Amino acid sequence: MRRWRRWLVAFVLLSALPLAQAQPQSAAKTFRIGILAHATPRAAPVAQLFVHEMRERGYVEGQNTTFEYKHAEGQVERLPALAAELVQQQVDVIVTEGNAAALAAKRATQTIPIVMAAAGDPVKGGIVASLAQPGGNVTGTTLIHPELSAKRIQLLKEAAPGITRLAVIWNPNSPASADIVRETTIAARGMGVHVDPFEAGSPAEVDGALQAAVAARANALVTVGDGMLWTQRARIVDFAIKQRLPTMFPDREFAEVGGLMVYGPNAADTIRRAAALVDRVLKGAKPASLPVEQPTQMDLLLNLKTAKALGLSVPQSLLVRADRVIE
Q1: Res. 46: pLDDT tops 80
Q2: CB within 10 Å: which end of the chain, N or C, has fewer?
Q3: Residue 34's CB: how many other CB atoms inside 10 A?
Q4: At 170, is the secondary structure helix, strand, or coil?
Q5: Are residues 201 and 102 in the same domain?
């Protein structure tokens, strides 16, 4: 009797198998990924790198993935409304560039996962509880590294040993910028350099900050990483060259338009890790359990054409350490 029952169960299961196989397969899911940025995502390197990295992971725009681009065109006040639009579009995840965009997204939704790409300090910015345990619906990558400010000044002094007064252009509307200015001031003081910070909260205030730096007799200039200042990089670099000011910047695009030096996290590595986090989120991982990742690879860029224009002779010891030399 028991053997007969086993045969009957096996027969029923085998009979049902073709029927189950004949059922139509559910359509492949199309992922909707929102990209919220302070600048213009389609033109910004962060967005381009991110879309490429997602494609490498099988998320192909126009096939199984739709990217919803929302950009504030340098106007931070537009970010809350743009974040709300992404929420209304019911995207599966929101990818943000910069602290202001991440904060706007967090205020717009507590349920849609948010992955920060190239953010500032998200803890001091009030975006996550801690790097190790973000909590809530936000995780991602940060550009903050505890030794970054000091290293930038050290490298700048190697290229231009005569620096004594350093102008720091920063955006007071960026939550973590004040801390970076403070770190820069402390690090510079230890190297015998006086720091004068100058605020530029909008594109209209950039020229005034630059003129104030010259009036303060600064003989070098740096900027704090910020989306608005990034959009004004050509103006800042052109002014510095005309005033013969050695410069250090946080983003490689500054060196590409003539900035003397750039030292900061490797953009490709940062975005690659952000894309990996998005992939995990889309596969079901919760942002609260995914630690915010700090930079592990740093790049040094030198613009020798600008160095020549400034009358600087960059030491060989610095050239051999550069990841890229622009001639």
Answers
A1: no
A2: N
A3: 26
A4: strand
A5: no
